[in-house]
Every structure is written in structure tokens, then in C-alpha cells.
Amino acid sequence: MPATCSRCRSAAAEVNLPYAKLRLCARCFKDFYTNRIRRTVEDFKMFRSDDRVGVAVSGGKDSMALLHGLKEAFPAAEFVALHVDLGIRGYSEHCREKVEELVEMLDVELEVFDLQRELGFSIDDFKDTLYRRKVCSACGTIKRHLFEVLAGRAKTRVLATGHNLDDVVSMMLNNFFNRNWSQLVRLKPVLEPLMPNQTFKVKPLIKTPEDEDLLYCLYSEIPFREENCPHAHVGRLRRNRETLEYLSKDNPNFKYQMLRTFLKLIPILEGHVEKPKLRKCEVCGYPSSSQICAFCRRVRIVKEARRTRNKGEPRL
User: Fold this and answer.
1) Which of 1, 188, 236, 281 has the fewest CB atoms within 10 Å, i.e. is most exposed?
2) In this prediction, what percent of the chain has a pLDDT beyond 70?
3) Tens-digit pLDDT profile for residues 227-251
4) Angle at Cα 240 formed by Cα 238 and Cα 245, nearest 5°?
5) 3-state secondary structure of 122
6) Is 148 domain-assigned?
């Protein structure tokens, strides 16, 4: 006989959560998921219940579950979906289509930055630059900057991202073993702006395991992209996940224990990590540690690569 739900005691349990010692039906799982988002936002004071909040949505399960979950958890708040169309052939169109489908379902405002239309290049063009083997690195820099641009367009000072528990713990391990203390500090739940024109970056899914984002999408019938980015380093990501799963095998609370330890270490780390001295980028005016910011340097490199490639093409 199938187990019954630990919460409602009436429906059959479909989801097993060993770390919480719960077996939940679909309805109670969705309530559990959104209640955890609500508590996380409130515990870390990420935003007020009536704020206007920008939500970075890529089209993947994590960010799409985040937008839907936030809308359920804070019906009085005003959410704006922020999407960067990266122009990746055969992939970005699919992502944008899913985002547009979700915002229509939720009746949420959408702001889109179309990289090809607005800046004249796509992430694919980095294959012709010195970043050909590190397209993900260049893409990350581009996206971080453009989400700030979109937040400015949407007139919101808070930017919520879909970083989940597995993401944060995985990055914690990488930064810890590489002794990258400044990046370790930046993984905290609320990242305050270093300069006045930046956003507060918040992680409402920091206590949510990755596989539960997928379950929430499936149970709530949330559209999301099914394809992986062709530039993603799937092997490296898989190895990180496998390491975490191995360490969690006999201890379902392992990831939460790591997170709790990390949160206690933040004040100590912040006291020993020197904040970068920032100035305005001479090109875009956004905060930078040098005369020209990392975003503008990469834009210059990729545009030069496009010009060089086009000059070499035969005239039609």
C-alpha cells in the first residue's frame, strides 16, 4: 500500500524529502516549495512583500520555477521578468519562447535585451575570439552586465536570480579549494551593491535543491527549456554534481550543513576580504575596477573578431 502524504494525510505521497523526513503529495509539495521561498526571502530580508522585483529568467527550470514560486509566495509584490536573448543558434529562440509563454501565463511584465539586435553580435561569435574555449566565461560576464541594464530599464533595485542550493554549494567548494575568498563571499543570500547604480542581488532558492525545481515545474505545468546550451561545459558540471551527491549519499542534510556553516563564516570572511576599489567604466559608465570594464573589453574583442571575419568573406 503506497504511503500517504505527511502533511494532508489523505493523498498518496509522491515526493520523498529525506532531509526533511517528509513524504508529500503533489499539492503539499507545491505548498512546501513556495512556503520555503517565502521564508527564505523573509529570513534574509531580500525584499518587502509589496516591492517591485526584477527576476532574471533564462528559460531554464531553476529561473522559471523561481518566477512562478515568487508570484505564488508574494501575490502583492510586483515582479518583472528580465531576459537576455543571447542569439545562440537553435537555442536562444527556444529559451525566449518558453519565457514569453510563462510571463503570459502569470501576467507578468517582461523586459528583453536582444544581444544581436542591440549590440550587433551573439554569444556564438565568441568562438572566433580568444574565448573560443571559454565561451561560458565570456557569456557570464555579458549576462551579469546586461541583467543590470535590464534592471535599470525595469526601474527595480532588486534582482532575484535562480541560484539553487546545489549551485551555491558547488561554487562554495570550487572557491574554497581555489582559495578564492572574494568570490566565496559573493555567494551570500543578499549581495549589496558596491556602487549606488547597482542592484541588490538576492537568491530566494538558496535553500532549494535543484531536483525540486524540476519537480515544481512539472507539477505546476511551468514551461521551461529542455535543451542544454551548446557551449556549456556539461562534463565539468556533472563532475561537481556527482561529488556533491556522493558526499550526500549517507547524509541527506550534507548540503544544508555546508550552507549553514558557510553562512556563519560570511561575517568572518568579509572582515578579511578587501572590497574592490571601483570607478565608472569610461565606455558604459557602469562600475569597474579598471578604466574599461570586463563587459566592454569583451564587447570590443568580439566586435573586432566579427569585423575581421567579415572582411575575409568573399563579396556576393
Assistant:
1) 1
2) 96
3) 888 888 755 556 777 888 888 888 9
4) 90
5) coil
6) yes
| Whole-Å CA distances, 159 to 102, 248, 309 | 18, 31, 37
Phi, psi of 202 (to 5 degrees): -125, 155
Structural domain span for residue 73: 26-275
Average pLDDT estimate for 247-263 = 91
The set of cell numbers assigned to 123 is: 554569444
Q: What is the pLDDT of residues 286-300, one digit of tens each?
A: 989 899 999 999 999
Q: Which three cell numbers stand for residue 169?
A: 554549494
Confidence band for 198, pLDDT divided at 50, 70 and 90: confident
* Number of domains present in the structure of the chain: 1
pTM assigned to the model: 0.92
| Within-domain flag for 34 | yes
Question: What CATH number is attached to the domain comprising 65?
Answer: 3.40.50.620
In a domain, residue 90? The reply is yes
Report how far residue 143's alpha carbon sits from residue 37's, in angstroms, rounded to the nearest whole number.
24
Please, what is the angle between helix 61-73 and helix 92-106, to 10°?
10
Q: HSE, CB side, 13 Å, CA atoms: give it for residue 253.
A: 6
167 vs 240: CA distance, rounded Å: 9
Residue with cell string 551593491: 193
Residue count of the chain:
316
C-alpha cell at 180: 578564492
Q: Could you write out the three-class secondary structure of 219-263?
A: HHCCCCCCCCCCCCCHHHHHHHHHHHHHHHCCCCCHHHHHHHHHH
How far apart CA 249 and CA 238 sit, in angstroms, is 16
Distances (CA, A) of 245 to 170, 179, 214, 249: 11, 23, 17, 6
Whether 124 is in a domain gets the answer yes
Contact, 98 vs 223, CB < 8 A? yes
**Tens-digit pLDDT profile for residues 70-80:** 999 999 999 99
| Rg of the chain taking only CA atoms, in angstroms | 21
Dihedral of the alpha carbons of 287, 291, 294, 296, in degrees to the nearest 10: 100
